[in-house]
Amino acid sequence: MKTLTFNNRLKKNIKRNYVFTMIQNLDLTRGIWMIYLASKGMSLTQLGLLETIFHITSFLMEVPTGAIADIYGRRVSRIVGRFLSLTSVVILLLANSFVWFAISFVITALSYNMESGAGDALIYDSLKELDDESGFMRISGNKEMIYQMAGIVSFMLGGYLATKNYDLAFLITIIVGTMSFGYSFLFVEPSVGRNNIDHSSKGHLLRQLKESVGVLKMHKRVMFLIIFSQLIMSFVTTVFYYLQNYMKSDGYSEIAIGTLYAVSALGGALLAPQVYKIEAVIKERGILLYMPIVSTVCLFGIAFSSWHFLFFIPMSLAEGLIFIALGDYINKVIPSEKRATILSMASMVFSFFMITIFPVVGILGDAFGLARAFLVMAIVATVLTVVNSLGVLVWKMVK
């Protein structure tokens, strides 16, 4: 009877995670913060530095926070992450200097760190304990759909409010952030993967990190999938943020920019529940082979076309497909007791790429214009796509 009751609570984790995803991502600042900070006097180079500060923090703290989630609980990690997120938005609203903006970005990074590995680990291990982990890709697709629906509201409403008063967008985000913080207490911690952890032993955090690295060494295919997926995400994320300023300089209003991102989010919402069906047809090889080509072509479109913003939509959709499908592959291989740590390692790889790419694009944008900065990205992406395609084809022949 006790097991049945606990299993019912684990099932509620899945449904509650859908609601949590919606309110967590009702962030009206997502599509306007670059423009907001620019309005407060930040140059593209300074914006690049702020994002670099974010990712340096994330790079340094991803794995330790993932290990903390594995050792002390994914629920606790999620709760702390929501509190930090709320704090960072309050600081960003009240700040007027680069230093305080930087402090806000450090706290924001920590909030992402606390959620990045813990959130998916909480849901996957809830499913595993229910003997239903095969449904993770479908559930991830549903979650991504809800994430994109939240994005539609955030981009449209945030863009509209930005044309009136930036502060309104931040105030509403703070109210919703308070709700998500309270809601995070409702989750129950799955027992899978935590039964043999001795919290009293010295060095258990370092041991967790060492053993997680050992898992990746044993599964080099997982290492490749992590690097591949995070590289694609870093390119799309960089375009997402700088495109705000690119469109603004072309005379587009905040509401027009929000509409573009809302349309992109709508496409993602429609695609996400179908990813498991698409994956069944083109398989892992098709995802690894075709999606980088789509992204690269779109980068050239953004750099050269007068309708540059339209190319962001298919680029974003390709990234979403990669995120859902490869996330499922990775979770199937890694052990539960190392899940949050290894997923945080993936986020650390993303931060490494962002530390490298984001400030360079900002500097190039200040010096030569964002169109040429995007062209440089497209050329680099072409080289990487050729290397990746050859690697995928060779791996298929060897296999």
Main attributes of the structure:
399 residues, mainly alpha, globular
Question: What does this protein structure show overall?
Answer:
This protein is an all-alpha fold and 399 residues long. The chain has helices at 2-24, 33-39, 44-72, 74-94, 98-129, 136-164, 166-183, 204-218, 220-249, 254-271, 275-304, 312-333, 339-368, 370-398. It contains 14 helices and no strands. Residues 195-202 have low confidence and may be disordered.
* Text of the CATH class: Mainly Alpha
Query: Could you list the spans in which at least 5 consecutive residues all have pLDDT below 50?
Result: 195-202
Q: Which structural class is indicated by helix and strand composition?
A: mainly alpha
Order of helices and strands: HHHHHHHHHHHHHH
Separation, N- and C-terminal Cα atoms: 47 Å
Which word captures the global form?
Answer: globular
Helicity range of the residues? Answer: over 70%
